[in-house]
Amino acid sequence: MKNYNIAVIGGDGTGPEVVREAIKVLDVAAKKFDLKLNYTDYDFGGERYLRTKEVLPDSAATELRKFPAILLGAIGHPDVKPGILEKGILLRLRFEMEQYINLRPVKLYDERFCPLKDKKPEHIDFVVVRENNEGLYTGSGGFVFKGTPNEVAVQESINTRRGVERCLRYAFDYTRRRHKENKLTLCGKTNVLTYAFDLWERTFHEVGAKDYPDITRDYAHVDATTMWFVKNPEWFDVIVTDNMFGDIITDLGAMIQGGMGIAAGGNINPQGTSMFEPIGGSAPKYTGKNVINPLAAICAGQMLLDFLGETEAAKAIEDAVISTVRNHLKSLAAGKMGYGTKEVGDLVAQTLADAKTVPAKAPAKKKK
Ligand code: IPM
Ligand code: MN
Asked: Mutation test of ligand 1: which of 55, 75, 91, 129 has the most ligand atoms closer than 8 Å to its C-beta?
């Protein structure tokens, strides 16, 4: 039996209640696929900060690095000034654990929940590979003459050859593994950001031509990308982009796949500890009301198992989510699903428990 230690950060707002449902489903998957999942809880988040005035203990990343994976609910508290927890917990963990990829699949499970006219599941199925450690997110910059009429604010986008190249290589490898259209689109702004995206574009073609000749290289400006998400989402297979553009386009991506209730992502360190989360935030107004959609957190759990190499168990969770969405839910939005948070978790858990699983095929023996 395979044994995995998983750190759990429920976090703020509705984070803990959606994480509870994700664990409910993970436990069913574990039973079915003969895995042992051991959870360790961490109380990082707004409540802890308000109580102790410490955003994140310095030992947090060191401690968390012992785990192969982390399941995160949400970070963000209405009584804490915006930025403190986001930068102090979420971004700090992403950086300190070198989770240099933010992997965000955009997949429509049911056309009823797509806001785009005539778009069906076969039209919306792509993945955004967002650089997760650099760009505008590093905190580089500063003020000059702050508070005076001459005030200057500078916020710099940091793009290193090493950081850009490792992100691109991950995206190329991912495109190859996914094996759908074998097409990778670089999303940038080469017509204006002539330094940052010059580096991205040169590295993209250099690495692609040398090591990934089987992958078609495509390019789209970020503004055009948002247009195509709405007009022709079927054009995309895998998209690779910088941190800020990735942040923006994946919110739009979430909307076309059915909303924040279903959108999950993984902060990935391919050689280290990765952290999986619903991308929707803490939704404080829904806290404790049993109305928030837990599917995004459940899908984060699915991505976590996939990262651990438990691809069959992950696939089974996804199938159970799809079946629940198609057969039971009235909506993917909080309070409108036709079921409560816990009941949606129960539906997925039950569907998964009832599903016939095809045992893994033994590798075919070569005939002599
Ligand atoms: C996300 C969020 C974060 C980001 C915020 C909360 C710092 O919007 O995960 O997309 O900008 O990366
Ligand atoms: Mn975001």
From this structure: 91
Residues with CB under 5 A from ligand 2 (ion): 247
Tokens of 64: 């968390």
* pLDDT tens figures, 44-102: 999 999 999 999 999 999 999 999 999 999 999 999 999 999 999 999 999 999 999 99
Distance from residue 346's CA to the centre of ligand 2 (Å):
28
With the C-alpha atoms ordered 164, 311, 304, 226, is the resulting torsion angle positive or negative?
Answer: positive
Gap between the Cα atoms of 251 and 241, Å rounded? 14
Q: What is the pLDDT of residues 179-222, one digit of tens each?
A: 999 999 999 999 999 999 999 999 999 999 999 999 999 999 99
**Domain boundary pick from 219, 236, 256:** 256
- In the listed set 256, 287, 310, which residue is the last one of a domain according to the structure? 256
344 confidence band (pLDDT: 50, 70, 90): very high
What pLDDT score does 363 carry? 56
Our mutation pick for probing the ligand 1 site, out of 136, 242, 247, 251, counting the most ligand atoms within 8 A of Cβ, is 247
Query: Distance, CA 279 to ligand 2 centroid (Å)?
Result: 7
* Residue 24 main-chain phi, psi, to 5 deg: -55, -45
In a domain, 113, yes or no: no
How many whole angstroms from 321 Cα to the centroid of ligand 1? 24
Q: Are residues 248 and 264 in the same domain?
A: no
Residue 119 lies in a domain: no
175: phi > 0 → left, psi -120 to 50 → alpha, else beta; which? alpha
289 domain residue, yes or no: yes
Determine the pLDDT at residue 220. Answer: 98
Number of domains forming the structure of the chain: 2
**Same structural domain for residues 48 and 92?**
yes
Task: Quote the domain boundaries for residue 225.
Answer: 125-256
What CATH number is given to the structural domain containing 307? 3.40.718.10
**Alpha-carbon distance 165 to 133, whole Å?**
12
**Would you say residue 109 lies in a domain?**
no
pLDDT in tens, 155-177: 999 999 999 999 999 999 999 99
Rounded to the nearest angstrom, the distance between the alpha carbon of 289 and the centre of ligand 1 is: 24
